[in-house]
Amino acid sequence: MANTRTAPSGTPTNVSQKHNKGGIGESTLRPDGTLKVTGEFAYSSDMWHEDMLWGQTLRSTVAHAEIASIDISEALAMPGVYAVLTYDDLPAAMKNYGLEIQDTPVLANGRVRHHGEPVALVAADHPETARRAAAKIKIDYRELPVVTDEASALAPDAPLIHEGRDDHHAGHVPHPNIVHRQPIIRGNVEEARKRADVIVEGEYTFGMQDQAFLGPESGLAVPSEDGGVDLYVATQWLHSDLKQIAPVLGLPEEKVRMTLSGVGGAFGGREDISMQIHACLLALATNKPVKIVYNRFESFFGHVHRHPAKLYYEHGATKDGKLTHMKCKIVLDGGAYASASPAVVGNASSLSVGPYVVDDVDIEAIALYTNNPPCGAMRGFGAVQACFAYEAQMDKLAAKLGMDPVEFRQLNAMEQGTIMPTGQVVDSPAPVAELLRRVKARPLPPERQWESAGEGADVRALPGGLSNTTHGEGVVRGVGYAVGIKNVGFSEGFDDYSTARVVLSVVNGEAVAMVHTAMAEVGQGGVTVHAQIARTELGVTNVTIHPADTQVGSAGSTSASRQTYMTGGAVKNTCEAVREKVLEIGRRKNGSYHPAWATAELLLEGGKVVTDGGEVLADIAELLEGEDPIDIELEFRHRPTVAFDLVTGQGDGHVQYTFAAHRAVVEVDTELGLVKVVELACAQDVGKALNPLSVVGQIQGGTTQGLGVAVMEEIIVDPKTAKVRNPSFTDYLIPTILDTPTIPVDYLELADPNAPYGLRGLGEAPTLSSTPAVLAAIRQATGLELNKTPIRPEALTGTL
Question: Is pTM beyond 0.90 here?
């Protein structure tokens, strides 16, 4: 596996690594790594409290219905049951919640809008008792017609999923069943179309993907003596949860104290509320600690999914291969509640052209309200669906022009200075052509490797793997390429900030730094990077990470590839302020003894205060002896963004762009419809690799999730009933180690001068281009158009 570093362009960092072991740029090991791989790490589902009760949620068995009656008498009569709650038991005037639009009921109020909606809660002394009690609750449903797609949602007589909308998007959408609409108009598509020598059109379907994190939703709510509650929970955004939880409990925020517990993956699925409010309600109603842990079946109903989408594209190009125009319509199915749909629409529209120069565009993206499962944040956030479509279009254009697909992309690739369809200038490196060059230049893996192994051929190298369904008959190789563009951070004028508190003190004669943030560590390695930043900026070896909670300011969400940029930036800024306090103390105590205290640029390295020439002036621990700990908490904000214009879509809506390219090598049994992905190579610009090992891990993880939605992952929703048909890991398949190919990673470090250390958020970009690269390779192998994800065997054999 080759990891290539390229000298950065832009503002260099002014920190020294010479004596700061374990600082940025090193592959420092994760503090939680050993515990996780040995099974000793405590996840939220492992929490326990003396005398605790178990909570259970009763969910609707139909997708759209009026609730005529609820009878809880049999459940309440069961021994061991402490409480049964319905909508009528909610304690506050606020009974809904939501990330942006508060349209989601804590418990259904007279109507359910999707399969699996929470209707009632039970607390009991044993989880099985709680489950059985919930099963005894009798609900009389009067089923209503279901809305499941664009046609049924926008029909003149369509049932309204939410009547009487008064949210801030309601006034500019053409139909109440549209959550949000974002057009982007630039140039003149009709005139540009006249210049096109070739035009290609395509209609694409992207399936509903689940985040499929291994740790189910879980948490523990403990009532407190002051009438409040302490909540220990696995989430992505503590302070967002807090702002949604407190109002529906009827409590001030200071009486809802939240602490992050062990998180078993997230990928966007924990950005919304799941069991948090329910556990708190039961704890306050019973005055006992209440633990809720979803099983896998319930988890599929307990969180949002990736938006399924229909995408309609038209591209034109001149005969020499230059793009003339692009027109598209993107229809995202948001399901029954808004969740993050408005922001997903903004991403899908603004990134729909891809990493290409196209001056004339006509773009429309909408998200629908339907009776399908709610959809919201998932890794890639609107850009994934668009990338699948525009990359298929690039291959179609290249084929029609008789051009190499990589060379065609490079000819049209954006670069620093390119103007986006929104009018925003890409003001940092955009090495799109170089990323494509690198993946194409990589040697191809040997063909038909199973044959070279002789009689002892490993069937795992064949399509179908251990099912032993083929021995190589009808197996054809295909190679495909794709590249994508993703934004980093929260966009469209959102006040995106992170907070960090850093304490520097002396413990047993050694300077020790403590870093306290509310960042949710969901597996991305943020706690590792925070310690590396503190070591780099403060020159100390010993760094402790305080548990994330709401007793410090918000760190924002662990999403949008933003945490290293934002909370890492907050840690960096706060450490710089702490460092300046150390130097102030040094000048006060020792300034008269050495002129360098007043004139030299001073650094903290190896536990010492040193000049930029390396001369040691003082020991940090000795300087701080007798002093109060230095304790500073600061906020960090990125440069401001603005909302996209609701008519033209113009505006500097994004903070930063990031790019990744993939080459997929597949082998397909065209007779049986079986696919083996042999290699999925990636090249990505990361700006600055703060932890190279973690960088490679993130890129490989994102690539694997893109592989999953290419060939196997999809939540199946019955189009007639809107019921989920495969809520289990038996029927919803995710890539195992036998499905995951070799993933060579080649990363560039081209600094963004506007970002801390020049870094780029990197966790999402590889999820974009891996999917269309795999699809492109399968298309090359089979000659089929394949405009839907995931690819199933029957699509390859024509037996649909």
Answer: yes
